[in-house]
Structures are given as structure tokens and as C-alpha cells.
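Thread title: Can someone regenerate the structure for this chain?

I was given the following input by a collaborator and told the matching C-alpha cells would be attached. They weren't. Posting the sequence so someone can regenerate them.
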Amino acid sequence: MTEVFKGNFTQQEPLPQAAIDAAMAVLNHGRLHRYNEADGEIAQAAALETEFAALMGAKYCLGVASGGFALATALRALGVKPGDKVLTNAFTLAPVPGSIAAVGAIPIFVGVTEDLVIDLDDLAAKAEQADVLMLSHMRGHIVDMDRLMALAADHGLQVVEDCAHTMGAKWGDTWSGRFGAIGCYSTQTYKHVNSGEGGLLITDDEDLMAKATMLSGSYMLYGKHRAGARVEAFEDVRLGTPNISGRMDNLRASILRPQLANLAVQCERWNKRYDVVDGGLADTPGLTLIDRPAQEHFVASSHQFLLLDWSDDAIRAVVDRCLARGVELKWFGAPDPVGFTSRYSSWTYAPSDPMPASDRVLRAVMDMRLPLTFSLEDCAQIARIIRSEVAAVFQSQ
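Best answer:
Regenerated them for you:
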């Protein structure tokens, strides 16, 4: 009998009871705005920033309205101006080049390897075109950060890390987000902690934090930031920095704090699911798994594989056949964007020359969410279904 998976690829786990209780406390007292504190109270947003900074070993942390807002704020804090060029990954999601375009800058796309990380040789070739690299750890794949940071130092590149998919991940002994000048994180529903929307920004640079805090909409209330810059650091920026309101609120912060406390356990659960899927797809004819080096301590809330050099019709057949059996694969190589999938050639506001080697990889990328609502048995079944359908189409080509 043909197996059919009955799970839901977009259904996340319920929030922990501690998060629900904390949210209800905020709703009951009504002080949702981050600067609205009762006497002697530490606002939830300020507490969240303090806890995340401590978790990441960062000096400063700022909570904001979304991961994309964090990215754009990071660029503005670094002094990126309209017309400036910013290097970024060709394989990423639309909010990354979108944040560059939002500040009036021009994305310069850097190629992707078969390991789904930024092509460091292509980066070296393009490094002189910009002063800033917005590095996307796309889908949780982390490039050799030692080599990348050495390259950045050689070319005078400031690095902003997009860690939307790598909260809780490391390269070697260092957290993602702690290599560059600024690390940015998302707390959107499909990320590693869930507040619907939200973002976090960390840095060890006090001047950058002061600028970012003003940009986020602190008015003259920056002294309430317990993981923020000293009040003295705002003297030169408080009147000359625009307020682009995008603050974290106390309701979302209250939901996030209990999840942060449990982040390591959740990361381990995601990786167990990834390992089951990856093991189940090993040695499937025509299917290429992604190599993960030993230094990459990843957090796998999704799974990717490649169908390299397959025809469009054959790839569509795999997607359709898997969907008929309940398994939702997203194809980043589709000619037109579908849902959240798109690639550098889709973003017509940022035209780029074709990159044939990267195009070969991008058109082969198959992507699948792994929510924690899936059991390990679910993951094994999903792998069996994908393996069966990929093999069937491969043999028919």
C-alpha cells in the first residue's frame, strides 16, 4: 500500500504555558509599549534584550519589530547610504536584498556553492565593490567563518550576519551572529523562537548600538535599555539620527523569554528530525545531500537537497508526486516565485549579471520545513516518500 503523510508542514507547536502566562500578565496590566513601565518594573522587552545578550555573549542587544527591520537598521547604523553597494548571497530570502533596497543601497549578489553557502572565491572577486557584506546563513547553512572573516579583514569589509535561520547555531565554538560587526535574528513564527513577528540585533560596538537604538524609535528614552549603550554614547547621535519606529513590544518579548530559556533543547529536537530525514535520503539515486562540515554546529529547522542537472519537468514531477502523498517540497529553481521561494534573478529592483555556476545550484534546490510537531516516525515516513518518488522519476528520465 502506498504511504501518504498526513502531517501539516506549517503547523508549529503551541507556545509553552510559561509564555502564555507571561503574555496574559502583560495583557492584564496593559503596558504593551516597551517604555511603559510601572514603578520598580523591568519591562519585558528590556529583560529580553538582557537575556539574549547574555546568551550570545554580546555586550549589547536591541529588540525590534522584525528580522528585516533589524537588517535595515544594521545597515543604517553602519552608515550605508542610498546608492552604496552591499554584497549579499545570491541564495537567500527576499527580506535580505529587500533590507538593502530599503535603505536605498544596491545589492551585489555573490554566488552559492553546492553546499548552499556563499561562494568565497566569488566573494573575493567582488569584495572591492562594497564596504559591507550582508551575510545570510540561509536555511541554517554556515560557511567557513574563519576563512570568510579573514577575507573580510583583507578587503576592509564590515560584516552583518543574517541569523534568521541560525539562532542557537555555531561555527566552531562561536555563535552565529558573533563574527561580524552586527548579528541580526528573526523571531517570526517559522524561526527558532516564535513571536509571530519580531527581531533581535546584537553587537559589541557601543556607537553602533546607540545609532541602532535611536533608529528603532527610542525617542529620548534610551536610558531604559538595560542591554544598551551608555547614556553618554547617545550625545552625538540623539538629535541627528532619524526615528524609524520598529520597536519590540512587551507582549512579544514576554512570549519569547520562556522560549529562549528552552532554546538548546529545541535545537536538539530539530537536529534529531533532520538526522532522520537525512539518513533516510542517503544514497538515493539522482539526489544530492548537503555536506555539513564538522565545525558547523547547525540547527536544522528545515531540510534541503539538490536535484542537480535534472530537467524542469522532472523536478516538477517530483514536487507533484510528493505533494500527492502529503509531502510539501518547495522548489527554489522554479521560473516564477511561489510562496516564499525566489532567487536573485527574481528581484528585478536589483538587476544582476547571470551566474551560471550558481544558477545550476539554485535551480536544483529542494526545500522542506521540519516543524517540531513532526515526530521522528513522521520524519522517517517523509524520507521514505521522497526517496521513492525521486527514484521513480530518476529512473524514468
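The radius of gyration is 21 Å.
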